[in-house]
Structures are given as C-alpha cells and as structure tokens.
Amino acid sequence: MELVFALVTDLHFGPQASFGGKLRKLTADAPALARAFVSRMNEAVRPDFVVNLGDDIEDEGFEADRARYGACIETLRGVQAELVNVAGNHDLVHLRPADLLAAWGKPELPGLHYSFDRGGFHFVVLHTREKKDVDVTVGEAQIRWLAEDLAAARGPTVVFMHHSAADQDLRGNRWFEGSPHICLVEERRALRSLFQQHGVRAVFNGHLHWNHLDVIAGIPYVTVQSLIENLDEDAPGRPAAAHAVVRVTPERVIVEIEGAERARYQVDRAG
C-alpha cells in the first residue's frame, strides 16, 4: 500500500512585501509559479491528491484578499487530483473562516480543522491560529477533538498544519530566528504526545519559509519551503519554486522537495 501526495505552501498571492527593508517574497511571481506547479503535477507526478498548506495570500484588505484567495485556489484546482486545503495566518487577517470554506467548496464543514481517509490512510488537517506577534495556538477544544479523532482512526495517520509542532532550531532562519512564539505552536508538546500515543506516521507544515526535518520519537516533522521565497538577499530575486512529493507506506515516509533548494528525507518506521 503506497499513497503519493504533493505539498505546496506559502504562495502569497498579493502585493509586494519586504522584510527588513529587503525583497523577501516574490509575490509578483506567485501566479506563474503556481501554474508551473500545477503543470508539473499533471504532466510528471500525477499524485493521489495535493495539499495546500496555507498562506495563499499576502494580506491587504477584505476585498483584495477575497479575490486573490479565490484566484489562488482556482489556480491550484487545475491539478487533476483532489485539492486539500489548510488555513494559514495571512489567509485569516481580513477573511473569515466561512470565506475560506466557501473558496474550498466545503461550506458544510463546522471549522477549519477536519479529517478524511484515503487509500487506507487517515489524514488530519489542524487549524493553527496566530495572534500577530503574540502566539500560535490550536486551543483546548481542538486538542480534545484531535484526541478523539486519532483514537477512532482506522489506518496509519498523517497530519497537515500550517505552523510547526516541532521544537525547531531556528538559527539561520531569516524570518523567525529568535521568535519561536510566532512560528511554533504553543501546545506543541501536547500535540506531539498525542501523535506518539496514536502512532502518527508524519507531520507536515509550511510557514517558516525553509526546508527542515526533525524526527521526534520516530515521527518525521517536515517543514516545506515557500513557493515564492526569494533565495537571494534582495531584488531582483530568485524564487525557491519549492514543492514536495511525498510517498507514504505503513513502514516508510519518503519526501522529495523540488525547486531551487532540493532535499530528500526518508524515515523508516522503527520496529
């Protein structure tokens, strides 16, 4: 039993955005890079499904954000496979959960966290909520829901979320070095305890704008680089064009990150 899915994250459709006085996000390239990702999925990879890990937009205002979020989702729907969506922090600065659910075509969902089964595996989507410059949380209610969901899961489980549940070493991260409170989930130890208790096979996130792997208690925690990250120090820039192709079996997780900063991770299940 093998399932293949692809990951793309932090597409940031929207106005130009600088950080520290330098051009860090190549937002102008986002639509073209998203279309190139879709083409590669359809022509070369043909995954079972595609996961959009969030931050589809560079927030500006309600009307602009709603239009750009819709444009991003519509572009990704060009993939000839199911599209699975995760909410990012930029997506919810001006938009409401109901706006995202409408764009996903899933207005019936009670919230932005949910789970589903495909190909003998169980998949969980968590909603990590960020208060700007304060903290990132999932909340007690979502942790209770997660515990019940994992206990009832039939088959190996994989988790998707926007922020990280690992205790990442942030040295060298141009966005978050010295700021774990706005990139790592506050309740991450409680989450990891549940993941370990229920034998979760892998956890994937975006947000940190780099490729990163932590293996904790045998579980790989994988962060995927932003599609539009500028790998140069400033303009005119060189986009990461990053995305990942993941192959999972009950015994093994293989992650191949494509783009300008390629990486390959393989974690075999102990025992």
What would your notes on this structure say?
- With 271 residues, the protein is an alpha/beta fold.
- It has one domain: 4-Layer Sandwich (Purple Acid Phosphatase, chain A, domain 2).
- Helices cover 23% and strands 27% of the residues.
- A 6-stranded mixed beta sheet has the order 5-4-1-14-15-16, covered by helices on one side. Strands 6-7-10-11-13-12 form a 6-stranded mixed beta sheet, covered by helices on one side. A two-stranded antiparallel ribbon has the order 2-3.
- The longest helix is centred in the first third of the chain and has 16 residues.
- It starts with a strand and ends with a strand.
- The model has no long low-confidence stretch (mean pLDDT 97).
Task: Name the helicity range.
Answer: 10-25%
Spatial arrangement of strands, main beta sheet: 5-4-1-14-15-16
**Which homologous superfamily in CATH is the superfamily?**
Metallo-dependent phosphatases
In round numbers, the mean pLDDT is: 97
Low-confidence stretches: none
The rounded distance between the terminal residues' Cα atoms is 18 Å
**How many beta-strand elements?**
16
